[in-house]
Structures are given as structure tokens and as C-alpha cells.
User: Fold this.
Amino acid sequence: MKKVLVYKSRLLLVAMLLCVNVASGQQSTEVYIPIGNSPGVSASESIIGVIRSVDYGAHSMDIDIGDSVRTVRVGDETRYYLDRSRQQRSSSTGKFQDCEKGQRIEAKLSDNDNVEWIKIEAG
Assistant:
């Protein structure tokens, strides 16, 4: 019985480590994935729309999503990616100041409308 518990514990530990590696792997490659193409994220955990307004002081923005408007907040941990796939150029990291009215974006939401990352469609 003790051997079975040790085996199950080790198996559980390996499974947990694999999950962490997969999650961190997707985070490190997210910069290269175009808007709307993030596996398991786009359209289920993210929103895609056009920036209606940006409040740099309040660290928030309003996003037009079809017929509705969604206000989201960004924080110090929010990551920014410039999607240059339409120009057939390499994407890169960005910053909050890259967000401007009229740009198409994808934002992965966490709790309370905070944003984990934002992909900004470049010019």
C-alpha cells in the first residue's frame, strides 16, 4: 500500500510540473501568435475588439466589441505584444503607450476585468 501511495504521489508531481511547463511555454511564445489564434484562449478567455478610448492615468481602456463596450484595467504585470503579422514582419513586445484609439486588439482577461496580456495590431 505504501509503494502505491509513493508511486501516485510521484505521478501527481510529474503531472503538475508538466502543466506548469506547458503554461509557461505558451506565455513565452504568445508574442508570436497573431490576434485571434491563441490556442485555448482566443474567443474563450479573451476579447477581440477595437480600442474606443485609452485612459493612461487610470490604466484602463474601453474596447468596442460588436454592439457593446467593455472597460478593462491594465496593471504592472500586464504584458503587451505588437502583432505585425499583417505586414509579414516579426511580432515584438510592446508597452501600454502603444495602445491607441482605433487599434484592433485582443486582451486576455483575468479576474475583475484585469488584463493578463494585450496583443495590439500594428499599423
